[in-house]
Amino acid sequence: MKPRIPSIGKAIQMALQLDLFSDFLVPDKLRPAPVKTPLSSTLKETVQQDELRPAAPPPSTFVNTSNKRRILIQDYLLEYDLQRSKRRSIGFLINEDGLRITAPRWVTIADIETAIQEKQAWILRKLTERRERTQRKLEPKMHWQDGAKLPYLGGEITLRIAPASVSGTHFQHEQSELIINLPADAGEQQLKDRVQAWLQQEAKRIFNERLPVFAEKLNVRYQSMALSAAATRWGSCTSQGKIRLNWRLIHFSPMIIDYVIAHELAHLREMNHSPRFWATVQSVFPDFEVARHSLRQHASADLPVF
Asked: Which of 175, 224, 223, 169 has its CA nearest to residue 195?
């Protein structure tokens, strides 16, 4: 007798997907404990974590204009924009202009600066991450030519173009150089196609090496693995055991690749994103939060354009 498949599962094929913006799926008990502040319960700190999509308070809550202030923390003169509102707590937001703090009208500057000191590690880290992302955007786009640098397994490899009558590709591990043999009249797109083909070949090889490792740890069996080129998803898994992994993961470190693989295979035990699912991931990949955070720092716009 064939096992009955739930109607909902049949309708949606029970496909779980690991995308770029799924931070809300991590259960609270698996998140790092928040830093407690000595302020009263009415001054509970509200930190805006989603920098890409900040949830601004309704305009009606603001009662006066912003006020630029400065405070010295860790020998660093920090400038922040203070906004008074009708809200009940102190809120922190890192945006394109730096640090913005929103606080009730009745909270003193001394209490606000105490909250800043308590949250200084988070503030400085987020400001650094924002500055690094801005710097990456200012860096020149990759030029597809001899000597160009290409991200590979968390590091960099150098492209070397060697004119030849017969096309060929060879990777020299010691020099971290990818040798591309191309006819003298080959264009840029031919070079891109050859590099992409090699990267996809490497991705398939590494994925097929790592999948059995985590499948054995989780005591699950998957049916197949295929490469994906999705714009916003790093991987997916169906209830039939069909795994799809984004070939662009080859640009990232082995730690990140292992995390995505462990994530997708864990769905074969828990076809959801419940606390039990994250506990399953953690059982075979204890540092999944570190890898997940690192993956979120790499925007797809930072990767080479083929």
From this structure: 169
Segment holding 101, helix H or strand E: strand 98-104
- Separation between Cα atoms, residue 268 and residue 115, nearest integer Å: 44
CA distance 276 to 136: 37
Cβ neighbours for 242, distance < 8 A, ≥ 6 positions apart: 222, 223, 224, 226
User: In the structure, what pLDDT confidence band is assigned to residue 136 with cuts at 50, 70 and 90?
Assistant: low
- CA–CA distance from 166 to each of 144, 163, 182 (Å)? 20, 9, 7
**Tokens 């994530």 map to which residue?**
263
What percent of the chain has pLDDT above 90? 43
Strand ranges for 164-241 from DSSP E: 168-172, 177-182, 224-228, 233-237
The order of strands in the sheet holding 76-85 is 45-47, 90-95, 98-104, 76-85, 67-73
Structure tokens given for 194: 């050859």
For residue 236, which of 9, 10, 16, 11 has the smallest C-alpha distance?
16
Q: Which residues contact 9 (CB under 8 A, 6 or more apart)?
A: 239, 271
Residue 13: count of CB within 10 angstroms of its CB: 12
The residue with greater pLDDT, 6 or 228, is 228
From the CA atom positions of the chain, what is the Rg in Å? 24
* Cβ-contact 140, 149 below 8 angstroms: no
What totals of helices (H) and strands (E) does the chain contain, helices first?
7, 13
Q: CB of 233 within 8 A of CB of 17?
A: yes
How long is the chain? 306
